[in-house]
Amino acid sequence: MNILGISCFFHDSAAAAIEDGRIVFAIQEERLSRRKHDPSLPVNAIGAALQAAGWEPRDVDRVVFYEDPDLKLQRIREQIERFRPESRYLEERALPHFLQHKYPVAALLNREFGFGDRVTCSEHHLSHAASSFYTSPFERALVVTIDGVGESESAAVYLGEGNTLRKMRSVQFPDSLGLFYSVFTQYLGFEVNEGEYKVMGLAPYGRPTYLDAILGKVLHLDDGGGFRLNLEYFDFCGTERHYRDRLVEHLGVPPRERGAPISEAQQNLAASVQTALELAVLHVVGSAVRAFDCTDVCMAGGVALNCTANARAIRDLGIRLHIHAAAGDAGGALGVALLEAARHETALYRPAFSPYLGVRYDRHEVDRTLAGRGLPHSRSGNVAAEIARRLAAGEVVAIAQGRDEWGPRALGARSILADPRRAEMKEHLNAKIKFREEFRPFAPVVLEHRYSDYFETLGMSSSPHMLFTHKARRPNEIAAVVHADSTSRVQTVNAEQNRYLYDIIREFDALTGVPVVINTSFNLRGEPIVSTPADALKTFLASGIDCLALDGCLVTKTAADRETDTVSRNRHAVQAEWSSSSQELVETIG
User: Fold this and answer.
1) Among 87, 112, 411, 461, which residue's Cβ finds the most Cβ atoms within 10 Å?
2) Domain-embedded: residue 135
3) How many domains does the chain have?
């Protein structure tokens, strides 16, 4: 059976393909459209999936959408009724837009691809649950999904057994941990659905002095693993912000204007919000573990991308925890396809999973991209050794090789690499290449067999998808990847997982005695991670990256390119700031 899974219309649209139970392709629309967090119908991703699988639209047996438009419509109407007159905007503008452009998803897909009556729908949180459970090593597990809002649910607990998922608990909108965190993301002057990582990164610089003002007053943790938001402080019908003046008065901390300096009080608020989220996640997961007597846990949903909360859940609850590499909404596309595939399997269904599921570009595409550009480039017989030599000498090297990563993390297919031993490298990367805030941390990638030498392992033999923060054991050796709280968001790599990246780090280790390099996403601020060789070359030339490795081809810059680097970088930084500040507020209706 050929199955196509699709997610779209909120943020991070995506498509995934499964052929006879095998995962053959998955990619986010943003990688191809070049629009960050692209929420639109993923026509580019679907087209790429069909091409990669070798299918025509008529070859697809089932097209499955990751949520139920009818249930979402029902919740929107209930939201409008419940919050009158504040819901006037939703009724007059958002609801008609939803009905015309989002609700008729089957008709839209049929118009674009002619799928006919082969389109079916699932449920948002069930799709999240499936993405994690069917890619886990567990035959039986609790599956916890936590995000902003699906159709009407913001969290759910499933019991996964064999190939089945049974819903045991759920929490309904407007009570939402994802929206709670996103509201404070906006409060602290960052972009919703983008800046949540920044709140997590800022938190270690503060102290949770506002925790008592938040827990029990703004966010309530209820018996039975539930939670509630105090709606006196929130406005989920607003068009400019989702918090009320009363929240500002209650906290006594002024909201931060985007781009303004961050005060000590705002750092402390970030620490308090992060701690509150961690305690809430412990509350939800811990209650389920005790109720269902199961310590094997899967998680999905946007909140499962909070690496610090994930690590604390393992430490405090003593659980084994699996999280899908694309835990956010994009992952729902693969999740719903896995769910459909599992329904047709009689044996235990746990297909082989790799995060390298996107588009592969061959040597001819690389040569066509470089032709006529006049850039110095060469093909190396041992590209790993050459990249390692450049890294050890202090250069920053971008790599684009193999298939795009699935999910929001760069895992060595579209990555920027640098030397972690140099403490000043963090500032250099933030200021000259990524154009982002100075407090943002960088992640390390370490040879899997040396994982425990450099980091706390949380009881795991590997951490391949960069989803947990680990305490650093040798912080002085790798200062550029150790955050203010002495942790790192670790990726481990072995030869089977990604031979190209593994060989680079192995050669770097041979030169320096350190089996760790900095690994950050190959993109500039405000842009998606690169996909094509052309994307890679454009980003390379617009940044302070020293060398670009397109598979086995090493590209450097001319003297003229280096002279114009500063102008390009400054222009891009201004454009990125403008683009970020012009983003619309996230719509809770999706």
Assistant:
1) 411
2) no
3) 3
